[in-house]
Structures
1.
Amino acid sequence: MTATAPAPTKTRRAPVTSDRSSAENRLGLRLVAPAVIVMLLVTAWPMIQALYLSLFQYRLTSPDDKEFVGLGNYVTVLGDGLFWKDTVNTVIIMVVTVAVELVIGFAFAMVMHRVIFARGVVRTSILIPYGIITVVSAFAWQFTFSLTNGWVNSWFAWLPWIAEDTNWFGDHWPAMFAIMVSEIWKTTPFMSLLLLAGLSQVSEDMIEAAKVDGATWWQRLWKVILPNMRAAIMVAVLFRALDAFRIFDNIFVMTRGAQDTESSSFLTYRQVIEQFQLGLGSALSVLLFLTVLLLAFLIVKLFRVDLAQARGEG
Amino acid sequence: MKTDTKTKAGTGIGFVLIMIWCLLPVVWIISLSFKSTAETGAGSPQFLPKDATLDNYKTLLGVGTLSDGTEPDPAVSDDFIQALINSFGIALIATLLSVVFATLAAYAIARLEFKGKRLVLSLALAIAMFPVVSLVGPLFDMWRTFQLFNTWPGLIIPYMTFTLPLAIWTLSAFFREIPWEMEQAAQVDGATSWQAFRKVIVPLAAPGVFTAAILTFFFAWNEFVLAISLTSTTDSRTVPAQMSFFVGPDPFNPPYGQLATASVVVTVPIIIIVLLFQRKIVAGLTSGAVKG
């Protein structure tokens, strides 16, 4: 109880404690507790529930027939071609959209970095796709590619593979294309803003020095600018890749999974909410969770990004 | 000199391309919202409406008289307005609560030394990457047990969960920029840690808190997976969910104009927020995000 702290503690009213650091420790824990509880309440607990339910044959339409099947649901899922087809779809969407966004996003970031006039106008405009609801983006692009009401066919009819009557939602690849356009349109601004932040931290002196030494524009880009933006690029890729892997809204609105455009998230949703297959759906949920975990682990390991460090969080 | 002109031209072209990229789809849905049902029903591939009409807006908001002299169908406007109220209510409450919790946590992370700090940050990061769909099944089951299914709190609670990570990261980055000495000075003057937090740091942190609130609001306003899975009627359906189920009488011929109008209406708040707080949003998205 007696004060042993090197400096005399100055407490006027109720003596808080004799040991400042343990008081700080307790206050810290008390302040983070509400946030941590809310975060765990809706994630950890349902995930444990999902793990448990995934071991049962359980349909909500006949709850009395709940039957323990062990790993049976996992065997069913992993042995089903649909699961793999949807996983491949999701991976294709993820890889293509992130790659395209990285290139376009970087080009946008370069422009925004250079623009002197109308800087506010560009930044305001670029935040509109970022802020717009994904469902609205999906509708806007669905109507754009619509056979009867879209402008793509009439504007681009001069291209050899587009005709007045091209039905974009009538085949697998065109439908996937339309979905990816909507996804890329909406999320490129986010990517470009993250890259812009990285770009503005590359020292101008270094670029100037390279220029004086006779480096071409291309060399400056690859040897000076990009290596110095590594952390920013990796953070952007990690966040966007995991986000793209969870793609759901665009597919739900634009095709409802028709033409084999279903994603892993959509398959899980369909099993649980439309078919009431809680057991099987929970197995899918667990697998989806593990895939995302694996993906995050791979990206972090592969690129050796220390996120905490990248965000200046010692 | 030559490269400089080239760079300038490139920037100019880039500027135009960015503007087209960002605004063309928005202009498109606005244009579509002025097309009549008759026009879209017959097929109308041209960009601008033939005869611009306000009928879609009148139908959705339930005001005025349509161009054919009939009153708008109240069933459509009632559902849409209820969905708007749900969207606003749920997003605002979730934002408020999430920002309060995140402010407490971010303060502790930025300013205090305590065990488990890194654990909290890692947890937040893990949740930011969590596949929301994998929660739909168990939450659907749990929410029905707790009577939270198809209610506002049933959506507010998970929205808090998924906006807390973003808010905590953004805020802790902002809080690290606040001058430490001010707090110490207050403590020297006899304030406790809590008083120093409330009287000194909160006013300084207000701009950061506001930014976190905008980003949180965007998330809740946009959320779709939980909104369609944990609701069943217009009592708690938000606009995105309501729109996705709004097919109209003919499933093969969706009411393009009305869906576009709904899209425009829900995009208006976003555009207002973006116009007013552009700087804050960019700062929030990037300041804490990338420091290499």
Note: Strands of chain A lie at 56-59, 62-68.
2.
Amino acid sequence: MSAHEESGPRDRMIHPEVAKAGDESERGQDGRRLDHAEATTRPISAEPKAKAVREAQPRGAKIRGNRPIDQAEAAERFLAAPLHQKAHDERLWDLRKKRDTAAFGIPEWEELRDLASQIKAHTLSNLDRYLEEFEANAKANGVHVHWAADGAEHNRIVHGILKDHGAKSLIKSKSMLTEECGFRHYMAGTGIEVIETDLGERIQQLDNEEPSHVVVPAVHKTRFDVAAVFAKTMGTDPENDDAHYLAESQRMHTRPLILEADAGMTGCNFAIAETGTVVTCTNEGNADLSGNVPKLQIHSIGIEKLIPRIEHLGVFLRLLARSALGSPITQYTSHFRAPREGSEMHYVLVDNGRSERLGMEEFWTSLKCIRCGACMNTCPVYRRSGGLSYGATYSGPIGLIIDPTFNKRKYSTLPFSSTMNGSCTNVCPVKINIHEQIFAWRKVLAEEHQIPLLKQGMMKAAGQVLSRPATYRAAIGAADSALRALPRFAVYNPLNTWGKGREMPDSPRQSFHSWYKQNRMDKKPETDA
Amino acid sequence: MRIGLFVPCYVDAFEPEVGIATLELLERFGLDVAYPFDQTCCGQPMTNTGCHAEAAATEALFVRNFAPFDYIVAPSGSCVHQVREHLTAIPQTDEVKAVRGKTFELVEFLHDVLKVDAFPWAEFPHKVGYHSNCNALRGIHHARPSELNKPAYSKPLDLLAKVKGIEIVTPARPDECCGFGGTFSVFEPAVSAKMGYDKVSDHSRAGAEYVVSSDSSCMMHQKGCAARIGVPLKFIHIARILNGVSA
């Protein structure tokens, strides 16, 4: 969602109570449906004046320490909330369609993807050199540079900087890296207030939920859900789910906090080695507020965000917003290079498992990811499960291949939450072979016995049957007659996971095998029935 | 040219008419087609679940059965993709590599190897939605996937265009996965079924009477989904249409 930076006086906004009967609140002043940079609003109810059916927001996966995430269970609860599921699917499919239009508007699109992939491969293969170059140039620009081996060290460093300056509040723009580090949770115990300035991320912060998507963090929520969160946390009208009203209320509530903040923080989309610059791409301008308003600014940077030179930035900028949202570029592309007069600037370069991943033969290219979310938008499983069903910082296809590098046991189930259809690989702007890595992870996890014993046992049994023709023939015969003989209630029991949502296939009179034996071994051809 | 006919396990057990149509269709072109009698499966259920060691004996059996042929043809993009890309649990001898290289899916065999230009016996005067199996589409390149900014082509639609009376209708999300996904269909049944419901509804809204595919596995799933939610669609394998089934 996008805050309306240029919106006029409040009385010009269309409020449901002043709008004409039949007017949908999510239409703009020109009568057209609001088309935000990051999504198109959609009416939940076809008849806005009718009492809309409310539906409780389905919550994410149950986290039980290190135990494997049950994504299927959480997805089933998401599917049990059809209004949420439908809105989620349609919003994200809309982004996929816009992505196609934008991508197909550039004749050299596929060459751009190749080029971006090669630049990333080159940079990652020479990462030590580029990191040193980046650090040297940043220091020359007057930036304090810190190195964090993991998330905990990142949090300690940032906390230390804030303490040294006596900061009581920190405004920050959205950063998946700080989510990965558990930064907000850590800060909750320090007495320093953290205020998210990205609208979607702010909604998630106020609701005490993780982002469900790397670009549109609250995309799993409906306007009703947002209205409920704002009513509880900011005292807005719980019955008013008008998008303008909600965005404006948040803005009025958060602006004073931004203006009074002691420190600001952003993530980083691209870190340019030759200039020591951090580049952020946003649609709300909130990274600029976070970086430029307070006198103390901190930028958290994953070490894989490096690109060699400023000339390479254009390649990625052309791909990023088109892949993410179908727009040619984000509203704001901000370059942070040196502290302003009288202010202080810090970079925290974070490893948190990246060096180790760089050494993984089959999985290192996942470090090319520029966090555009295109793989999530196109993923048919993600669109029907919701990002929170993955129980991890990174959800959807890219999450399936990154998450196990953080915790192999906890995220051992995730690579199985995929049909391996390959659409993710085709939309990836840096050409990560996502679905092939999902396949490769399954092998690694099975070999290390990180898949359920039952599943592995079933596969062992299947392998034994399928490698012995006589045993296999006996099993096929048994399956045939069992299907014919069993009454419907026996086949559709709770243990029959096929029959739960689908009818069983018809069982033919005869297998191909026995047809062939009967008709061809005796040389008596028949025609197709 | 000696052709080894590979009939995938679920075709053998649930859709024998697809195996019969494939055999007859190949024979119409004067080919010498044999069905190795001890065949079972390509090993995909195990490898897709990560259990490569458990697939090794099945893969070895596959190679033993099919090594003697010039080409191996199967009416399934999914199984052919497994053989070509993922039959790696056994040592990659010259024999194994040769078998993997000469295994073809029926549509691509007709289109690329035989270069068939007519099916004079085929007539199917119905509205048909084509379902691309994801392995056939993105794994063995049956057609241009909707994500790529590349010139459009489609081998299955090229072949169907040679069938008299057929009308192709296109769903709103033409190559969205139907949710079968092999063992995904039983390990993630809720999402799998929902994807199936959405897929068959999309075909139905586009006006299809029939869904046609080169893969029976996807259609078995979609058929079960359509029957469950009451979408009036019929399902038929492309081999049967090209072989001139009347419906």
Note: The longest helix of chain A spans residues 82-104.
3.
Amino acid sequence: MSASRRSLRAEPRTARTRRQDWLPWLLVAPGLTWLVLWFVLPLAQLLPVSLSDTADRFRMTLVFSGRIANYTEVIGQYTPVLARSLVYAGAATALAVLIAYPLAWVIRFRGGRWKAVLLALVVVPFFTPYLVRAIAWTTLLGDDGPLLSALRAVGLPQGTRLLNTAFAVVGGLTYNALPFMVLPITLSLERIPTELLDAARDLQGGPWTVFRRVVLPLSAPGLAAGIVLSLIPAAGDVVNPQFLGGPNNRMIGNVMQSLMLVQRQLPRGAALALVLMALMTATVVVHVRRHGSSDLTLT
Amino acid sequence: MGRRRFLRHALLAGGTAALGPALLAACRSGGGDRSRRLVISNWPLYIDPTSDGVPGTVDRFRKQTGIEVSYSEDQNDSVAFFAKIQPELSAGRPIAQDLFVTPYWLAARLIRLGWADPLPLEEVANAARLIPTLRKPSWDPSGRFTLPWQSGITGIAYNIEATGRPLTSVDDLFDPRLKGKVGFLTEMRDTMGMLMLADGKDITQPTFAAAEPSFARLERAKKDGQIRAFTGNDYQDDLLAGNFAACVAWSGDVAQLALEQPKLRFLVPATGTTLWADVMVMPKGAPHRREAAEWMNFVYDPVHAARIAAAVKYISPVQGVQEVLARTSDTAALARNPLMFPDRAMEARLKVFGPLAPAEEAQFDERFASITEG
Amino acid sequence: MRIGNALLVGVAALAYGVLFAPIAVIVVFGFNEPVGRFNLIWQRFTLENWLHPLRDAALNQALANSLALALAASAIATVLGGLMALALSRHRLRGRSWIEMLLVLPLTSPEVVLATSLLTLFVQTNLPRGFGTLLIAHSLFCLSYAGLTLKARLAEMDGSLEEAAMDLGARPLRAFRLVTLPLIAPGLLAAFLLSFSLSLDDYIISMFTAGETVTLPLYIAGAFQREISPQIHVLATMVLVVSVALLGLSVRGGRSA
């Protein structure tokens, strides 16, 4: 494309390039329209909705009233759930790092010619439907399920439960975070030249020193991308607390679902959504400013 | 509503222009012709199926009347179903179904909102066979908008091996020895009705103030970890998998489950419990009224109603079913089952959860959700 | 170092074990003959479910809906995202960083927030919910993935090939068709497949925007309440096998390219 050619070469503007200034805009226009219509506009209209009163919750009719109490109420009522969601998501992300980093390391440095296969094997389980996997976990973790039966045989006390506990929810979240953690870390390790590591070792660096001074800093962007990609879906998850948790392990996504679809309190749902959005967007904007968006695409 | 109008224009201008006719076509469900058709939506496993060459009720109806019936078992969550049909009905558009089966309290809401059509009962001769306890019920005082499909009892199901003893009262659900092995229903009226009755409250005219002690009790039990989960129909998985020792459950389900798990027992607490009904409702503007009347007449024939009752094991709303079941030896036992045909003693324990005014219903829903979702 | 190595390999092996544990359950339960409604407790081996994988008519309908939706949403997302990626990586564009941020945010927003905002918009504008609204929602989050994936691919690519083509006299469109398009074809395919699998698996956003249309995840959530047929496990296994085959092909294709 000529516009690209001109712009890449940064030639002085000629009549031809000026005529084609509209080309990039033409290219982004459809997608941009789509994003504005179905992302910006819906988010923007959440603001007036969040400041409204419910006139009839069954007809879903609202009256704009400037009711700021919607915010104070949801923050007051749901801060514990919000905090729990962040703790669960944080714990799951930390666990995912602890599992994914060694895995990525092994794939990168011990994978040899099986590297592509090993990496693919991390993704393959996720080609089964999300909910079917969740249901499979309920079978595995049930009180009379295979895992507890086996553990009881080796001395786990009777009455220990896994299903419908915080442990199961965090476990489920960790599981689903794994590919989002392993892929970006592996890709960033991939970019570290082996020669660099050899050089570092030649300089009498112990394995720990090499890791801390060379590998970790160089893989930081991948690690950061993995954390963002794990943390955000985990914090907003509905499925794991619903299938694997108990009534004391509900997360903010369950609350949103209940507010919007069961209690039908749209204004309060909208207020909570905006609070959540503000929290998460801050994280993402900081990340993109620091590391760019390319690591977030897993390619 | 300047903002709303603006939004709509923006959508029409941008959205539909960009998407073109495909979206519009996809948004409109196909309008049916007015021939002999009938679209019914019911809960799963709530009718006798065609099996081993013996035609089920739907097939027998098809054959006898020649009406092309679409019978789908796609109801599994009344709240979700309401969310699905609400936008259409509140905009005055007909929905896909001519007739659907829904809980009594949701029917009351639809009647109040003006989203239900009166049933063509004048064409349903067998409607006269409706059992007296369900005539002109509190959810439909005129009796013109609903006809019960099945009725049932909310009780306590338990695995006697897991509890180690027969349960005798609602208090047993709060026994610390069952900690973490107890389930309650997400259906607010079933869970709260039983608890309020145990607290000596009148549930036929429920008030939020009267319910609060029961809410508090439920909330404490949840925080203490006594309650493992709030479930819908999936309490059945948990009972069979051994995750629940005891839970609030529905009578017919347990009668069916007991065939798979002989250790299951069902308790109707002496303090009382809820009698509920799932009722047939015609949504506003449903086109096939005559065919719907024929269907209702068919399923209210005691012979057909007995087939349904024998399969689902709930309380049939049709008089004469007990006699039909008693006639045949392999169904005679069912005719003596007090969970299907409540005797006087059983009837005395059963109460219908009364109607709630909209504001009070919102309070109940919010308080209940603060326990189940908080 | 030896011990460290063994430890690392041990963790990796354990991780693979955990990753495949539920998959094993899914595959195995496709061969179960359940007693009653719920295929959740192992009873005995049977091939019956595999001989009749399409017995569950409502499940088939849900799968068909999901496939049609995923196909349409991925197509929209890949085309719109591809155009955006071209503009962002090949052209100088004022407000570029803002556009890029706009492309990233739907991907990184919590799904419940997207779902809530779309639902309230549909309610406020009285847009009937169904396949159309599902398509809007799915094409939106797929657009982010497709756009960013393609942008990353294009960024890795050298723009000089196109220039060379044009220096040799090719018109811009011709250069695009003959040079750029073949080069980004694997990227387009990857973006399409990624979008497809995301759409196929989406539960939360669909739950809010589906109306009366039932997709596969919505069907499975409902089935958990009423009847989990072994056909669910059979179809899940089939989806897995087909996906792995596609993955194998694309890995091989990627190598030869």
Note: The interface with chain A takes residues 3, 7, 10-11, 14-15, 18, 79-80, 82-83, 86-87, 90, 109, 113, 180-181, 222-223, 225, 227-230, 237, 241-243, 358, 362, 365-366, 369-374 of chain B (CB under 8 Å).
4.
Amino acid sequence: MMPLVYFQILSAILFGIGAYGVLARRSAVLILMSIELMLNAANINLIAVAAHREGLGHFANFDGHIIAIFIITIAAAEVGLAMAIILRMFRNRGTVDVSQINVMKW
Amino acid sequence: MSGLTANIYLLTPEFILAGLALLVLAVDLFLPDGKKSILPIICISGLVSVGLVSMIMLPGVNISLYGGILAVDAFSLFFKIVFLLIGIFIILSSAQYIKQHLSHQGEFYGLLLFSVLGMNIMVQSRELLTAYIALELLSFSLYVMVAYSLSNAKSNEAGLKYIIVGAFSSAVLLYGLSMLYSATGVTKFVDIGMILSGTSELSPALWVGVALIFVGLGFKLSIVPFHMWAPDTYEGAPLPVTAYLAIASKTAAFALVLRFVCEGLIVAESLWQEWQMIFAVLAAVSMLVGNLVALAQTNMKRLMAYSSIGHIGYILAGVTVLSTDSLVAANSVSFYLVGYAVTNMVVFAAIIAFFNSTGDDDISSLRGLADSQPLLAASIAIGLFSLAGLPIFAGFTVKFYLFAAVASSGFLWLAGGAIIASLISLYYYLQIIRQMYIEGSDNSAHVSSDDGHGVISPSGTISLPRTSFSTTLVLGVGLIVVIWLGVYPGPLLEIIECASEALMGTR
């Protein structure tokens, strides 16, 4: 069995890339994709831990898997909503560049 | 662990609420356009009946459902009633706005009811995933409601900013949850509390997990430095949604934070003492930044956004001083949340009524309101005095109670900072009152020539339509409660005492 720490490092890196993407990207769609990366980082972490603990015989519950399934479902709903709002934005303003979405400041 | 259906009848209010939301959506499909005005009536009667059912079924019950995932106790009952009342008040005060300014009314009411459902589950949840799902049910409804004026660029922008920051914050919260889970293998608040109190030295994973969960919640609560979305979202959203954001979502999120902190964190006393400092600093920064930036605002919604950030700071100061040995802090936080909700409701109901007749939400447009609409002006003035914490209004008693709790737990500097922040807030609240009462008196000729307002006709007579019955009702009830809480808060405090006992006793 691969050590748990590999998975945790992978998930930390994914989370970091996602967070960087949210801060650095200009396009709202790409920001959403970065947020997906962050959510999946959490999923990898959860499933790796749950599987690892089962393998060690610590406790055979499925909390980690269940949480991951819920996260996937909620993330799908979230993306649907966000895309609808971005689409609306594009119809009204003709852009999805977040640096130009600045009617309101301070 | 008992079976899935054991005690499921205790969730009847939630089932009715979900059914009601679906019913409203279904009824809306078959209603011709002219008859949509029965939708708010259905919603209100439904919410009232949910409240009655909860009042009949749940008092005295103190049970954890599904192996300790949902708590049906006095604390959740108290906040459920608060949320239902907020829902009713929002619908009453904004039915006319929704009819005038928004299309697709049925979906709006449906979403509102779903968000009330989310809040009800949120205050009952004793486990992180359940809390997260309830939080998302609330947030998703709010995302849509914020972006509800489809062709309004400001509303779109507000919705986009809100959903991006909201999704980001839930990703952070979930990563925190996964760290916590990987370090401990548990997600229930009580188990987290047991593990934390068993360790003297925190492992880094646990530290990062709890910290990220609070960063996520901090975004939702718009605590400084995670507040940047709030002013834009408040300004762009339709007014009833702004009111709803400011009142309901904050109250619900704090109810969740109260339960999480009381069951999970304060039991580990040595660790909690370290964290108290972090909370105290965040609280101080929130109240100062919120109130200072509010000084420079010219838009009413934006001003209320910064003012709410300031109030979040006060409430967070109350959360800071929660402890295992006394109920005072928990009482004062719940009490503050109620006072804050009622007072804001009055202010927003008046602003919504004003917006209905003028279509303007700048502070300068309030000029002379005392002459043209004395009831609205008086409501806004009393509400703002209460928010600032002047005596005989609710704001004074709740602030007094909260600051006393903060000071008596050794955080004197925090209480001092809160009092200074309140003084600052008095300045910008008084600016608005000055616009309404002083500016207008000798300015009516100037206003009418200024034609952007059109509030007062050239002859000086009042051309505004009268406020609707429902608005008058909301304002009347709200003002009575504001003054009642300010003069005689005893009965409410007794109820809150029971709620806090249930909260602390379930450890």
Note: The CA atoms of residues 89 and 96 of chain A lie 7 Å apart.
